[in-house]
């Protein structure tokens, strides 16, 4: 079956990965159906450029209301769309939030996966529908070896990681019990300009840009020593698609094979925004301080930076929050952002995916940071025009 005849169903379609995956599949000629939760406000910013009023012709992209906690709803949607491929990307995916909402996280991330697999089985689509489960490097948690690969034992350290562990094993169980084409993509951290603002990478790039523009004084972070294998989401959705095009289902790790600390990510992000950092103190007393400011770099990001800085955001005006100067503290550590059980180091080994899929990441960490910072500058400028 050619890509032009295929139908894909994506849960979590309005998220970072869902939006990039939708673009990829539409470009390959798929008919794409996405499931989104009902809300009193529109929450489709990431896919608005793909959506069209059903009364008019447009891309074969359709949105349906649904929820991972509603079995009947999921069965109906799968029955109606008859997908060749399902990408289960929906999740409560914020690790820190999972400590505050562990039951909800388990219901969506663990039981939600079971509901999708059971719907495929109940509808008799085991031979037709291929299933991709968005797994996570958080499965490794308290790592027992570095780098982590497909054979590394799991040791999750959060309710999110534990819920995803159940999802991993139930996916594998249904594959073996019912001969379903169901795979887990064990994806290491992947970011982009579409990343939610509460996730640490986007929190950092957004803060760097706002501080450089004189719209924010400082930002507060947690464990500065934590290291992650960060890649670009655009690269990772290609790997998701490739995993469902193989002859035989197999769980694979997607990663860059490089790790970066939160502190180093801060230096790259602020540097891309025109601010050079230096550090003082340790632990909860550590601070990121402005070593120098490159006004030329900041100006390059704006068509009219003077006009922007004379504007206001909320109650903060330029007269109240100035562009940073040498010696200003722009990053502080707040213990409330520490996890009850910390994951210190994640570093993936993507060699098997490279061999099996021919997949490799194209974005280096510096390219990723530059993309996010540039996008955040454009967003601020657009909001102040």
Automatic annotation (TrEMBL):
Instruction: Give the cofactors, semicolon-separated.
Output: NADP(+)
Q: Name one GO molecular function term.
A: GDP-mannose 4,6-dehydratase activity
Which is a GO BP term held by this UniProt record? 'de novo' GDP-L-fucose biosynthetic process
Instruction: Fetch the InterPro entries from UniProt.
Output: GDP_Man_deHydtase, NAD(P)-bd_dom, NAD(P)-bd_dom_sf
Q: Which PANTHER family match?
A: GDP-MANNOSE 4,6 DEHYDRATASE (PTHR43715:SF1), GDP-MANNOSE 4,6-DEHYDRATASE (PTHR43715)
- What does the protein in this record do? Catalyzes the conversion of GDP-D-mannose to GDP-4-dehydro-6-deoxy-D-mannose.
Q: What family does the Swiss-Prot or TrEMBL record give for this protein?
A: Belongs to the NAD(P)-dependent epimerase/dehydratase family. GDP-mannose 4,6-dehydratase subfamily.
The protein here is known as: GDP-mannose 4,6-dehydratase
Q: Which organism is it from?
A: Halalkalibaculum roseum
